[in-house]
Every structure is written in structure tokens, then in C-alpha cells.
Design brief:
This protein is about 45% helix and about 15% strand. It folds into two domains: about 1-35, no CATH class; about 55-225 and about 270-290, Rossmann fold (3-Layer(aba) Sandwich). It contains eleven helices and seven strands. With about 300 residues, it is an alpha/beta fold. α4 packs parallel to α5, α4 packs across α11 (about 265-275) and α6 packs parallel to α7 (about 155-180). The structure holds nicotinamide-adenine-dinucleotide. Nicotinamide-adenine-dinucleotide binds next to α4, β2, α7 and α9. Nicotinamide-adenine-dinucleotide binds near residues 142 and 230.
Length: about 300
């Protein structure tokens, strides 16, 4: 039984049926609620997205592709952004940092392998030192492997789990620890944990979101469809090899056969959704996985 129903039982007495504002204030005072907690009209300021200025975000795997688009979009939305990737993509990280500074926002980069907990903790400390308290973590880094079940080696499987599962957990857990230690999260200004999902692995993290919401941290995921990034170049060429088809034909076929809106997705389709998930407009959204695929999966 939640505290609202407990309070209702304790104070259960007939309430005049006349539907006027006095009735609501009597009920509100019996429940020891301030009038605005019981019922309130919305004001025009509540229809505006709050500014993100002064907030900072980390976007993992953001030297290219969807992560880069998210980082640039959040910077345009007012965030200072920490770019992350593995060492092999350090040059791409530096380029994105420069692009963000040109927008007029602060930026830095932290090389870290998200599958290593210690490296993730260091990345967060670098970001906090350079950009201030952490508001939003976008756990975007991920890998794809194009192999039939029986061809997957033990190492393939471990690597996939390490990056796509342990990596996400490391980013969520370390970011949540940091946000809780800051004591600056409120229901009107929650921390945001946002993760990359996929239409291929469409499932919510119900227990995690429940746990985190207690600390004024929302947890949501975005599930892209077929996005024309380096990842799909690999998927396309591997599938084409297996089927004896020319390079570039598989992505076209998949989009033609399965996407209602009939085009390959671009990273900006995804970063527009993440912009919403990282903004005040989504402060009451948690535990959701939002598909953004041009009409492949229908929820
Ligand atoms: N492209 C798609 O169609 C598609 C569809 C569904 C989901 N996704 C997901 O969206 C996310 C971004 O995909 P993308 O298409 O931009 O892929 P991408 O391969 O272009 O970019 C992924 C980035 O993550 C980085 N990365 C990989 N392992 C890492 C690690 N251990 N630590 C830190 N960084 C690491 C890579 O170096 C790369 O820069 C991924 O999680 C992917 O699974 C993509």
C-alpha cells in the first residue's frame, strides 16, 4: 500500500459531493497535501522546454556515427559534452570536441573502454573535473557481430557481452553513483541515464528504472532500426558476402522489405529522440525503451 492510500484510509470520512474548489482543498488539507500537489492548472512556462545550459553529459562511443550525432545535438541543446571512445578512435574524439567548442559549448574527451569498470570511473571523473557535475549519461557505445549462432566463438560471445551488457551496466552504475554523490538531483531536475538498445534486442530494464527513480534519476533507452553508420557497413558487407550479393545491396533490401517510411535511417533521426530524453520534457518518463526505426517494430 503506498503512502497516498494509507493517508486516504486514515482520513476516510464522507466528503461533500458538491464539485467545487473548496472540496478539493478540504481533501488536500486532510491528506496534508499542498494545493499544488493535489490539483493544479498548468502555467505557460510549463509548456517550454527548460534550458540545458550549465548541464553536462557524457556520450560513450561518440567519435562517429549515432554517438557523434547525439553529442552534437546535445551541445546544440545547451549541454557541455564529454566525448568518449576507445584509443583507436582518439582522432575522431578530438574532431568532435572541436566541433562542439565551435558551437560555443565546453567539451573534453576521455578515452575509455566501457567494458572496464575502472576506466569508466576515470572517464566520469575527467568529465566532472572539466565540465562540472554530471547530469546525463548516454551509454551509446556498442558493437555488432554478424555471425550465425553456431559460428560464434566463446571469445566473440564474451566480447559482445562485455561491451553491450557489462559496458552499459558500468556506465549506468558509475554515473548513478556520481549523480547521487552530487546531491543535486530533484524530481524537477532528475539525472538521466540513457542507453542504446536496438529493435533487435527490444526489452525494458524495469527493475533498474525502479531502483534509480528513487534517487531522482530516470532511465530510458533508444532503439534505432537500420542506421547507415560504420556499424551497418560491416553488417551489410558480411551479409552480402554470405548471400553472394554485391556490397550495399543488403541494407537496401532490408530497408525496402521492412521499413514503412522506406529509407535508411540517419544518426540525426536518433539524436532528435535522445535530445528529448535528455531534456526537461521527459522528466516524468522512466523505464521506457523508445523505438526510432521508421516503422519496423510496432509497439
Ligand atoms: N547503426 C544501426 O543501425 C544501429 C541499430 C540499432 C542500435 N544501434 C546501436 O547504436 C549505438 C551506436 O551505433 P553506431 O551505428 O553509431 O555504431 P558505430 O560502430 O558507428 O559507433 C560505435 C562507437 O562505439 C565505439 N565503441 C565500441 N566499443 C567500445 C568500447 N568498448 N568502449 C568505448 N567505445 C566503444 C566504437 O569505437 C564506435 O566509435 C550502438 O550501441 C549500436 O549497437 C545501432
Amino acid at each position: 500500500m503506498n503512502s497516498f492510500s494509507r493517508a486516504t484510509l486514515r482520513t476516510a470520512r464522507p466528503i461533500p459531493v458538491k464539485p467545487n474548489t473548496t472540496q478539493y482543498s478540504v481533501v488536500a488539507s486532510r491528506l496534508r497535501l499542498a494545493p499544488h500537489q493535489f490539483c493544479r492548472a498548468s502555467s505557460s512556462s510549463e509548456h517550454q522546454r527548460e534550458s540545458n545550459t550549465g548541464k553536462s553529459a557524457i556520450v560513450t562511443g561518440s567519435s562517429r556515427g549515432i554517438g557523434k550525432s547525439i553529442a552534437l545535438r546535445l551541445a546544440t541543446d545547451g549541454y557541455d559534452v564529454c566525448i568518449n571512445d576507445i584509443g583507436a578512435n582518439a582522432e575522431g574524439c578530438m574532431e568532435v570536441v572541436e566541433e562542439i567548442r565551435a558551437i560555443g559549448r565546453k567539451s573534453c574527451f576521455a578515452i575509455a573502454d566501457v567494458s572496464k569498470r575502472g576506466e569508466v570511473a576515470n572517464m566520469i571523473q575527467t568529465s566532472v573535473k572539466e565540465l562540472g557535475p554530471l547530469s546525463t549519461m548516454v551509454a551509446n557505445a556498442g558493437i555488432a557481430q554478424v555471425k550465425a549462432l553456431l559460428d560464434l566463438t566463446e571469445q566473440d560471445f564474451e566480447h559482445m557481452l562485455a561491451v553491450n551488457v557489462t559496458g552499459l551496466h558500468n556506465c549506468y552504475a558509475e554515473a548513478a553513483k556520481q549523480m547521487i554523490s552530487q546531491h543535486d538531483r530533484t524530481p524537477d531536475n532528475p539525472g538521466k541515464l540513457i542507453g542504446a538498445a536496438s529493435i533487435v534486442a527490444f526489452k525494458p530494464f524495469a527493475l533498474l528504472s525502479h531502483y534509480s527513480a528513487k534517487h531522482n534519476i530516470t532511465v530510458n533507452a533508444y532503439a534505432p532500426g537500420i542506421v547507415g553508420t560504420a556499424m551497418w557497413e560491416i553488417i551489410d558487407s558480411e551479409l552480402a558476402k554470405k548471400k553472394g550479393q554485391p556490397k550495399g545491396s543488403m541494407i537496401k533490401k532490408y530497408v525496402h522489405d521492412s521499413t514503412a517510411l522506406g529509407r535508411v535511417s540517419v544518426p540525426e533521426d536518433v539524436s532528435k529522440l535522445v535530445s528529448f530524453l535528455a531534456s526537461s520534457d521527459s522528466n516524468f518518463v522512466t523505464g521506457q525503451t523508445q523505438v526510432v526505426d521508421g516503422g519496423i517494430i510496432y509497439t
